[in-house]
UniProtKB/TrEMBL annotation:
GO molecular function: oxidoreductase activity
Family, as annotated: Belongs to the short-chain dehydrogenases/reductases (SDR) family.
Keyword NADP part of the UniProt annotation: yes
PROSITE patterns cross-referenced by the UniProt entry: ADH_SHORT (PS00061)
The keyword Magnesium belongs to this UniProt entry's keyword annotation: no
UniProt protein name: NAD(P)-binding protein
Domain of life, per lineage: Eukaryota
Organism name: Suillus subaureus
Signal peptide boundaries: none
This protein's UniProt keywords: NADP, Oxidoreductase
Amino acid sequence: MQVTGSSSGFGRSMTELLLKNGNRVVATLRRKEALSDLAERYPSSQLLIVQTDVVKTSEVAAAFAKAKEAFGRIDVVFNNAGMAILGEMECMSDQDARQVFEVNFWGASNVTREAIRMFREVNKPIGGRLLQVSSSLGLRGRAAASYYAASKHALEGFSESLAEELDPAWNIQITIIEPGPFRTGMFGGNMELVPQHSAYADPELPGSKFRQYMTSTLADGDTEKAVVVIEKLTHLDDPPLRIPLHRIAVRAGREKAKSLTEIIDRYESWTENVYFT
């Protein structure tokens, strides 16, 4: 398996699980020293660590080339690298908003492009599994997370469309992972919460409550248990297109489905006279 964002959170936990189970891993990350302990414990025949910034297409392509050289093929790609800069829309600078998209969408897209090529053109027999790490905020947006949620919604729409584009003969399967709150880097110090605009400072507004939650709540999701579930997906003959992973993600999915159904039922008649014939 090739794991992006392997320095912490889901990426680190997945890398450790796979190595413990005897699997071969290509671990990509921006700082190789973050996995120095694993490099000392596992041989290069099992663990390949590649310094990679997913927003740089040349580095992503080089990482896949090194994986091919070392192991011959990659059967699963865990497309996990991401970042979180949170705040209400008017609180976010253009630079921060664009950086969120550069990593969470364009970085993931860069990895996806190389993964599909590897699965189709390098792997013999042909095929592979692509696990796209989204978020419960990719299911339903929340106040004070507008650009982060937008980047994850973009990844989900991209992945849904891609899944339909692929020729079934290529034997490539895609699953979107939608985690709720887990003790990853997002909750462990790698999240940036930008200063709040005074217009949104009312503590009763949803954005203020979300800020309070993000800064004071210890996430109850265990990444080590979660990656065991995620890894199981790679063994399914017919994996789901998406899987909400946490009670909060499950609830978000159900609430959105219920709301969308109610809106469609209420306004379906409005579409009756909008056609040429």
